[in-house]
Amino acid sequence: MNADKTDAPRAVIVISSHVARGSVGNRAAVFALETLGFPVWAVPTVILPWHPGHSRATRIVPPLDQFKALMADLERAPWLGEVSAVLSGYLGEAGQAEAVASLVAAVKARTPDALYVCDPVMGDSGGLLPEPTAVALRDRLMPIADIAMPNRYELEWMAGAPLPDIKSVTAAALHAGPSTMLVTSAPSMMAGGTGNFLLDDRHALLAEHRLIEKPPNGLGDLTAAVYLARILSGQPAAKALQSTTAAVYEILARTAKRGGDELQLETDAQSLSHPMAMVQLRHLLHPGRDKRA
Fold this sequence. Notes:
This protein is an alpha/beta fold. The chain contains ten helices and eleven strands.
C-alpha cells in the first residue's frame, strides 16, 4: 500500500506568471505546492519584475512559437507519468491557451485521472485583461477543466451579469461548465465578511471569514494551489475548502498585521499545513445539476 502511494503520480505542472519580487502567480503556487509535498514543473507565461499593480513594469512574454515548443517538449517528456495535475493561471497572451489545452490532453492521456485546475485570471474590480485573452480562458480552457477557480468578478464577466448574492453566484457557477467550481471573493452571509463558494455535484459550501481591506495580490493563486494540494492528498471537499480558506486567510491576516505589501509565505509557511484561523463553513441547499440549461 505504501509502495503504491510512493509510486503514484504527485508532480504538478503550474503554468502562470513569474515575478522577480513578490508572491503572485507561479511564485505563490509553486511555494505552496512544494511546501505541502508536491514536486512542481513551473512554466512561466510572462516574466515581470513585480506585480504591475504596484507600478508600471517591464513585461516579457515568450514568443508564442517558443512557448508552444516548450510545452510540446513537456508533452513528450519521459517523466510525464509523474504528473498528477495541471494548474493554469495567468496567461501572457491568448495564443498560449491552445498550448495549455494540448498539454492537459497529453497528461490525461498518460494518467487518465489527472486533474486540470483552471484559475481563469482575467482581472478583478480594477479591470479586465485584454479581451482576446479572457475569451481564450473562457472558451478554450474553462470547458476542459475538472475544477475552475474564478473570482466573483471573473465569473460575472463570464456570466455577463452582476452577481450580488450567493443565489446568483450559484446560478452562474452551474452554467459555467466545469463540474467543480470554487468561486473566490464570493458574497458572504456574515456581516463584514467574504467567502469561498464551492459547488460540485454533491456540495454547495460557503467558507467565510472577516473581510480585510486592500489585501495584497496573489490570494487567488495561493487558494488554487492549496486547494489542489488538499484534493490530491485525498481530503474530502468540505474539509479541503475549510482548511484552504483558513490557511489563506491566516497568511493574509498576518501579512496585513505586519503592513506587508506582498503575501509573506516564507514567514508563514506553517499556516499552509496547520492553519489555526477560525473559518465558518456553511452547507447550503444544493440547487441540483439537473436544472442546468
